[in-house]
């Protein structure tokens, strides 16, 4: 059961983007498991990918194609990750691009490929390739919600975000979808994200915008501390809504686009946490007073990754000593614990490194029973701050992952 507000918004059409879906029986029958994106000619496309050294075949292929050209098409399959599949997996990934290129009448390197699902099994190529033409023939402008459902694996709900914004009298759209529920950790995770705008943005800035916003969104979430083999996030700017191209970050329009994209990316990332496998709590870990961003992140991740912290939140048990322990083993050098303050929402549990005098177990338990909770830590050693989003660890997380391949 997802936590809090997870409703799909109105998914505004992005001019210059068409989407098609099809049933290919990649793993399960009677579900749309192949999704295709088509970008208008001249669209600038950027991507970021998993930092897992054992990255999947489609990640290798997509990175290579993206370095060679501006792609026109994205092909996504769910049910099979095509990871840990060796030379045959690479051949199958390249074959998928080649087969779709024939259908779309483009060069093979104008196709990017994305797969998600079970690791270590070969793609059912005969079924997958038979699904390519139907997906292409299904291309239409208003299919973002269908695509969000089509890329799901253990997700319990489709995830989307969409905004319209105005610059110099022109209304632009920023729309995106994501998937992910488990195997989620910073440096991208078993997650896919696809975001597009019809604003005119240069290729260099498209990549810069993507890297900047991913760092504050998809790289600030963790469900279970596992970095997937298949993470990919794509940002495309079609320019089809008109206006002069944005070519400099000093252009006032750049800040507007950055602000909107940041909101969309954060929403898509937080939806993954709200739908974390077995999640019953949405937890914000906000660390301030650090000497630098890195140590704030190190402590936030230490808390967010801790199975003991996460299980305490599942049980609504204000066992706050587990939070202090996670702060202490985060590896921050010369940490003066006597300067550390910790709150659960507005309830201070730790003051100057020890139990806050006015803290009561009842006040802590009241916060822990909430569906949405903020852990706030002040390190008392500087001005840096950062935030990570996570969820609790429940019985259902174990059940979902124990039964994942069945």
Describe this structure in words.
This protein is of the alpha+beta class and about 400 residues long. Helix content is about 30%, strand content about 25%. It has a 7-stranded mixed β-sheet, with helices on both faces. Helix 1 packs across helix 2 and helix 8 packs across helix 10. It starts with 16 loop residues before the first strand and ends with a helix.
Concise account of the structure shown:
By secondary structure, this protein is of the alpha+beta class. The chain has helices at residues 57-68, 86-104, 125-130, 132-137, 144-150, 203-215, 252-274, 293-305, 307-314, 321-328, 361-368, 395-402, and strands spanning 17-22, 34-39, 44-49, 73-80, 111-118, 159-167, 170-179, 192-197, 221-222, 232-237, 282-290, 341-344, 347-351, 354-355, 372-378, 384-391. It has a seven-stranded mixed beta sheet, sandwiched between helices. Strands 3-10-8-7-6 form a five-stranded mixed beta sheet, sandwiched between helices.
Q: Can you give the helix content as a percent range? A: 25-40%
Taken as a percent bin, the fraction of beta residues is 25-35%
Q: Which structural category fits the helices and strands?
A: alpha+beta
- The geometry reads as globular
Q: State the order of secondary-structure elements, H for helix, E for strand.
A: EEEHEHEHHHEEEHEEHEHHHEEEHEEH
Task: Summarize the main sheet.
Answer: 7 strands, mixed
Mean pLDDT: 92
The N- and C-terminal alpha carbons lie at a distance of 21 Å
Q: In what order do the strands lie side by side in the largest sheet?
A: 9-16-11-15-12-13-14
Uncertain regions spanning at least 5 consecutive residues: 183-189
User: How many strands in all?
Assistant: 16
Please give the count of helices. 12
Radius of gyration: 22 Å
């Amino acid at each position: 059961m997802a936590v809090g507000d997870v409703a799909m918004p109105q998914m505004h059409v992005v001019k210059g983007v068409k989407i098609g879906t099809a049933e290919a029986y990649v793993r399960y029958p009677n579900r749309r498991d192949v999704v295709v994106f088509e970008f208008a000619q001249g669209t600038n496309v950027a991507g970021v990918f998993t930092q897992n050294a054992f990255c999947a075949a489609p990640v290798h292929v997509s990175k290579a194609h993206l370095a060679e050209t501006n792609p026109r098409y994205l092909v996504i399959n769910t049910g099979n990750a095509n990871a840990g599949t060796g030379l045959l997996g690479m051949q199958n990934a390249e074959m998928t691009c080649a087969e779709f290129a024939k259908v779309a009448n483009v060069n093979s390197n104008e196709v990017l490929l994305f797969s998600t699902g079970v690791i270590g099994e070969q793609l059912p190529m005969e079924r997958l390739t038979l699904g390519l033409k139907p997906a292409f023939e299904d291309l239409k402008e208003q299919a973002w919600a269908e695509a969000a459902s089509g890329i799901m694996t253990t997700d319990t709900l489709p995830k989307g975000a969409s905004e319209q914004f105005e610059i110099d009298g022109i209304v632009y759209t920023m729309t995106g979808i994501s998937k992910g529920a488990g195997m989620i950790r910073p440096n991208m995770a078993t997650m896919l994200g696809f975001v597009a705008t019809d604003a005119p943005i240069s290729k260099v800035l498209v990549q810069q915008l993507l890297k900047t916003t991913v760092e504050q969104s998809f790289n600030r979430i963790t469900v279970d501390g596992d970095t997937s083999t298949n993470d990919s996030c794509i940002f495309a700017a079609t320019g089809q809504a008109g206006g002069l191209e944005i070519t400099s970050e000093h252009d006032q329009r750049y800040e507007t686009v950055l602000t909107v994209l940041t909101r969309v990316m954060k929403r898509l990332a937080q939806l993954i946490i709200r739908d974390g496998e077995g999640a019953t709590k949405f937890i914000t870990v906000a660390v301030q007073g650090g000497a630098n961003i890195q140590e704030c992140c190190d402590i936030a991740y230490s808390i967010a990754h801790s199975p003991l912290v996460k299980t305490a939140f599942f049980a609504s048990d204000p066992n706050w000593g587990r939070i202090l322990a996670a702060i202490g083993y985060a590896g921050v050098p010369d940490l003066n614990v006597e300067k550390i303050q910790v709150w659960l929402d507005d309830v201070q549990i730790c003051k100057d490194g020890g139990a806050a005098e006015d803290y009561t177990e009842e006040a802590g338990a009241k916060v822990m029973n909430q569906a949405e909770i903020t852990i706030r830590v002040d390190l008392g050693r500087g001005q840096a701050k950062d935030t990570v989003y996570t969820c609790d660890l429940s019985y259902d997380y174990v059940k979902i992952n124990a039964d994942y391949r069945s």
